[in-house]
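Lab manual, section 2.4: Encoding a predicted structure.

Procedure: take the sequence of the chain (191 residues), apply the prediction step described in section 2.3, and record the output as structure tokens. A sample record is shown.
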Amino acid sequence: MMGSVSPIIRKLSIPEFTTNTPVLVDIYIAAMNYDKAIRDTRIEVWRRNSQNPGFTAVAALMDDQVVGVAYGFNGSPDHWWQHQLRRGLRQQGGPTEEEIHIIHNYFEVAEVHVQPGFQGHGIGRKLMHELLKDKQNTFAILSTPEVDDEANHAFSLYRSLGFTDLLRQFRFDGDQRPFAVLITALPLHDS
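Recorded output:
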């Protein structure tokens, strides 16, 4: 359980991120309650993501223990995720002219995770602010699994930071769970 000490949030260099990726992926697996069998594959994917243009990573530390991680990079038409995004927009009748503008200048918030037991104490908010600070992109976009009535810490955080719906009940290729794809204008503001 968290004491009264506030976490230290700091940016990670690409070498720091790639060296510490196993620990960071363990936080992701715990936070998302995923099967540990995906660990090696996710480590590989995260390390590969660190080579994307605009890559930024931040970590939350409590007593020298990493308890949270967030990272992202500039959206690109070459990325799998943007192909998925375009497919979702087509399925809902778009992309509209505004949506075309959006998908040409966004920062993809790829991952935001806080270790269970540390969730609900503002660490995710601090990670998001540090991650998106000084971004030159017009928008930030992320996806999160759908939950009934948006009743979890993730949705509460994203809504409080001004994220609105871009796509709902969207299914990414290879994942049968429905996701919400959320967007906000940058710079980030608390609401």
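Check your result against the sample. The beta strands are 8-12, 56-62, 65-74, 106-114, 139-145, 164-170, 179-185.
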